[in-house]
Amino acid sequence: MNAVRDNTAFRRLVAALNRMLAHPDLALKGTIRSAVDWLSMRKSRLLGGLGLAGLLVLAGAFVWAAEPEIDVAEPVDPSSLDPDLVEEGARLAAVGNCIACHTVPGGEAFAGGLPLPTPFGTIHSTNITPDPETGIGRWSEAAFRRSLHEGVARNGSHLYPAFPYTHYTLTSDEDVAALYAYLMSRTPVEKTAPENDLVFPLGFRPLLAGWKLLYFDDGRFEPVAAESDDWNRGAYLAEGLGHCSGCHTPRNALGATIDDEHWAGGEAEGWTAYAINESNPAPVPWDTDALAFYLRHGWHPAHGVSRGPMAEVTGNLGRLPDSDIHAIAVYTDAVMGEPDAARQTAADDLLAAVENGRGSGQSADTMAAIPAAEGDRGAALYAGACASCHSAGRPQPYGGLDFRLSTAVHSDNPQNIINVTLYGLPPADGAASPIMPAFHGVLSDDDMVALMSYMRETFTDEPAWEGLEERVADTRSGAHHVSVRPADMIERAPGNLGAEEQPWRQD
Amino acid sequence: MATGLTVNGEAVEARSDPDTPLLYVLRDELGLNGAKYGCGLGQCGSCTVMVDGEAVLSCLMPLLTVEGREVTTVEGLGTLEEPGPMQRAFIAENAAQCGYCIPGMMMRAQATLTANPDAKEVEIRQALEYNLCRCGTHMRILRAIRRAQDEMRNATEEA
Amino acid sequence: MTEHLRLTRRGFVGAAGSGLVVAFSMARADAQAGGEADVTSTEGLPGSLGDISQLDSWIRIDPEGAITVFTGKAELGQGIKTALLLVAAEELGVAPGELEIVSADTALTPDEGYTAASHSMEESGMAIRVAAANVYLLLLEAAAERLGADISELEARDGEIRGPGGTLSYGALAGSLDLAVAARPDVPLRDPSDFSVMGGEMTRIDIPPKVTGQPIFVQDLRPEGMVHARIVRPPSPGATLTAPNADDVETMPGVVTVVRDGNFLAVVAEREWQAIQAMRALEDAAEWETPATLPRQSDIHAWQRDNVSEVGTVDAAGTPEVGEARSVRMTFTRPYTLHGSIGPSCAVAVMEGEDLHVWSHTQGVYPDRAAIAEMLGMEPDRVRVSHVQGSGCYGHNGADDAAADAALVARAVPGRPVRVQWMREQEHAWEPFGPVMSMDVAGQVDEEGRITDWTYDLWSGSHVARPGGANKLLAANHLADPFPFELPDLQIVPPGLGDRNAVPLYQIPNKRILWHFVKPMPMRTSALRALGAHANIFALESFVDELALVAETDPVEFRLRHLQDQRDRDVIERAATEFGWSQDPLPRNEGRGFAFARYKNLAAYCALAMRITVEPETGRVRVHDVVAAVDSGEAVHPDGIRNQTEGGIVQSLSWTLFEEIVFDETRVTSIDWSSYPIMRFGSVPERIDVHVMDRPGDPFLGTGEAAQGPTAAALGNAIRSATGVRMKDLPLSPDRLAATLGV
């Protein structure tokens, strides 16, 4: 997979270099982007990084980095806000998943301070409550609009693209106005986010001008006339505020999404964000209805529950009207494309087999007595630790998913099944939500490998995972960082479990 | 087919099938009472014990994973005649009503304080998020754990 | 009626020491009331002593001086044994550590019905207190005779009586005492100013064994030769077993036998894990017909209103007419609610020859014995039921049913003790639920801000379906020759059942309180801690706050305006003072709430204030401080009162914020803690303070359920204060709150 990508990127780089020879001015941007993409594939990140830094400086030199400051505005009187606009803004904020990044678990909504680990260091989300001193209470709507559309703070400094203005720029002025009204209606909280902790020289914000020159295109969404209204609405939401690409499209070494691999799968907070294009690894192909159900409820009978950072996304999308959910599903389904007949037939057979094996559904664990084959450690582990929920036949979302339906077990990348097994699905305090215990204290690395291998072999026709041992070890050690949160909804109230300070993590 | 492990400091050979959850080995084969069946699903924490110092749910821990490891149940924290610091703290605070969940709470707390002797209240609450109490003894459980923490810290300082 | 009852009650209990008896006549709670109604004496003796007056039913002293106290009440984790020991020790003049206590065993202890309704201190506590005072007086009299001294010259200390002529131990006197005599009602009780142990603090006697892993729970019993059984319950309440298909299961490792009787299906194995595996296999193999028999959950309140079998008047005065001006009308609802014991129900039983011995965490060993004997066609005296502690029950949970299960299986494997424990999903799906309720309230205030008119209409089924006969045992309902469940009838009794605390204590000239009784029971319901009081107080006290808003009066002041009883007022003022109640502005989204009730309108008083923050984005409620004041009369064990009240507050917060049984038209689907979430540490309040009122010399008042209602109402009132929105449908879940608040 990597080799293929690598070659593609290399071919693009060569092509771009040729173009540059012909049209030096126009082609420079594309060439540098291609160079970065190519370097992104290199194993030696250090070497690549040095080269990239040079390229950045070069790019930065092309523009005058400073943007003008926009004057402070008088704080908005919340009572002056149009309630309908505020309500619309709440729905749009849900699409944007704003609360997830701009709130520390257990802290006040939108008050910022959440550390976001990136390959370049830690960025802290900012306070976007209307507090005049520490929040955005003195930002005019124009300043707010510029931040979403151009990635520039009110004071004129560039914003890190961890704030996904590369996507938000598609958002219409009307919708920005609604978002602004909504945020101005929130409770002001006086709180300053901690300083970012970034590798040198990325703490120097003018460099971002170079990054933006390479990777940022300012511009509103333009409907595609040939497509349906639903498709266009879905595209507007999913590519814009929804910023699905933020996780589901791979990123290059400079943290920019790789356009040519749109929705081909990426990573978020240590979790794999699966490909949601034609390469989606789900054993049962998604369709519009399944996607809509999943986005609405955070689970689907044939796919299981949303976990990791996606749980917050679905928790938020639950607030949207059916029409918007449907539109996102239509667009996503279109990106995924029609499954071929063989895949669909296999999926239908699989669903029938799973349904036949289901018990009454009254038991929390009607454990089909799965005999532990003598000497098969993985099978014995499965029988003693997993089967009581996962071979029980209790339907989703509270029953353990039948692994024959599991995308995590079918994916080329075992990261998510490792994450869930080691860290579980923490209970959501005061809300119905599936719970799974963490097994990191139960299963040794060898046990993990035996169990994962057994599951891969038993529940899929896919080849054994490569590099499983290393992934398990890195995940447990924290070399591969994973954020784990209780997640049926946006858990932001009393003392909920933070991503970083989990006592069950043995970093 | 015996599995060798250490339970509360004593080496034992467990004869249950290797896929038997540890809970049933402790209760049914070894006659211990501390770990309790609550849900069998890893949702309530009644069966919490320590394995190699870490809190685990024994209802979903197959016996074979415990081979050669050290298991501690509430019986290993002290005795009726000579209760240990965690037990003394729960007794002093009358930190139980029905008491069914309490051994699991104590084991979770013991593991938390072992890993982090200076755990703050919020960290203790977070650690206990996995353990359910239906009687509503939560405030006392927290007080007892803070008391145990003080006693354990003082003992460390004196030593 | 209420006022009359309260005066009567006080007159009655006050009579213990004075000889003045103003008893009101009400027989021991009958089987239907199941111990939720008050039991009172007809003979001038207090509490259970009225029924069982012989002293040696309560206290025995052996020649070595060892004193044993007997109670028919069961330790449910509420600390009753400790409180009863304190009472006995005080009156006997010995240290509590010197006493043994034996509780709830049909072979050993008096029949005190159910341990329920916060009655234990009023019934067993008063009985033991007066019995102990009697025994003490007899000891003094015996010593006076032996020492040739006058009683007034004697001094009792540490189990000895000293006088001018020498010292005699209680043991030495025991031989000359005849305790097989009736207690006298007129013996002097110790004066509170002389108390040495009552009112003090003591380590609860059951806690050290619980925290050191002693075999103290019924789950921990392991009699020699014990086998493990698991029940395969029907997949839905209306299901019929068509084929058990047990052949493959009978040959599984360790399986002793499969027991089938109609829809009752169980498997017995040597080892517990073997029993569980066999049960799972049998569950997969067995075939059932599962018709859809339940109303739709979303229609359940409407369904209740369509299925009223009779309407009872709970209370009425004047001519209530709620007009338009300065009036409020609201409907409140509560869903089916779970007891939700952390340890699923369990029992051990053994059939030896003609005799059956059952160990159970039942709340009533005698009624349970009668029901099991009836189910098995045995004479009750061939059945012994011994109480052993289980996980907390909070009312009628699966304990009696598990005892019946164990008894049925024990009959199939005579000579071998059988331990049955329910699985988690069985506890969630088959325990008798707390009933669904809805309440229409209307009220009006006059221009002076006084409530003039009040109507309250309650829709609820029965809250009491305890055994009561074999028909109240789940397994007996399922037998091939079944004891069909008999639907309980409407009962209106002074302490209230479904209508508990539906009558406001506030002075209202015109009022009418009706119970629209729904006899059909699509799902079995029974007593859940506080019965109707949780939802009734939630509705009533929420509504009082709404009227206070109409009257533009501080809610605490508004309550006091309508209360004359000094103890009502004292507890309210204490809670308000300790909390620092005021109308000072609070930060946005923060609110404070207050509520008050006297449990059953005749037991402990509880007033409670809390401060919360609502997060509108998610609908989450953060509870900061809860401050309660409790008046339990003479406080025997203040820490026990605080423990019960703290627990009641947290449990009620969980019910009120989060809990709702979920079902489709066939079955309950909330069958674990994922699908039926309860409070975890992340949501417990930052601080809970419970202040126990000092009431020396006043009669004991049951406390165990006093906080449930006021907590729910204070929370609702705090949310109202924080958001301006009155939440009327329980639970006040994040989803519901967020949806109600909008943005």
UniProtKB/TrEMBL annotation, chain A:
A cellular-component GO term for this protein: plasma membrane
Binding site for heme c 2: 244, 247-248
Molecular functions (GO terms): electron transfer activity; heme binding; iron ion binding; oxidoreductase activity, acting on CH-OH group of donors
Keywords assigned by UniProt, alphabetized: Cell membrane, Heme, Iron, Membrane, Metal-binding, Repeat, Signal, Transmembrane, Transmembrane helix
Cellular compartments annotated: Cell membrane
Keyword flag Membrane: yes
Name of the protein in question: Mono/diheme cytochrome c family protein
Native source organism of the sequence: Palleronia aestuarii
Phylogenetic classification of the source organism: Bacteria, Pseudomonadati, Pseudomonadota, Alphaproteobacteria, Rhodobacterales
UniProtKB/TrEMBL annotation, chain B:
Keyword Signal set for record: no
InterPro entries reported in the protein's UniProt record: 2Fe-2S-bd (IPR002888), 2Fe-2S-bd_dom_sf (IPR036884), 2Fe-2S_ferredoxin-like_sf (IPR036010), 2Fe-2S_ferredoxin-type (IPR001041), 2Fe2S_fd_BS (IPR006058), Beta-grasp_dom_sf (IPR012675), Diverse_Oxidoreductases (IPR051452)
Keywords for the protein's UniProt record, in alphabetical order: 2Fe-2S, Iron, Iron-sulfur, Metal-binding, Oxidoreductase
GO molecular function: 2 iron, 2 sulfur cluster binding; metal ion binding; oxidoreductase activity
Span of domain 2Fe-2S ferredoxin-type: 1-77
Gene3D superfamilies associated with the record: 3.10.20.30, [2Fe-2S]-binding domain
Database matches in CDD domains: fer2
Keyword Disulfide bond applies: no
Protein name: Nicotinate dehydrogenase subunit A
Automatic annotation (TrEMBL), chain C:
Superkingdom assignment: Bacteria
Coiled-coil segments: none
UniProt-listed InterPro entries: Ald_Oxase/Xan_DH_a/b, AldOxase/xan_DH_MoCoBD1, AldOxase/xan_DH_MoCoBD2, AldOxase/xan_DH_Mopterin-bd_sf, N-heterocyclic_Hydroxylase, OxRdtase_Mopterin-bd_su_IorB, TAT_signal
Domain Aldehyde oxidase/xanthine dehydrogenase a/b hammerhead intervals: 212-292
GO molecular function, one term: oxidoreductase activity
PROSITE patterns (UniProt xref): TAT
The protein, known as: CO/xanthine dehydrogenase Mo-binding subunit
Protein's organism: Palleronia aestuarii
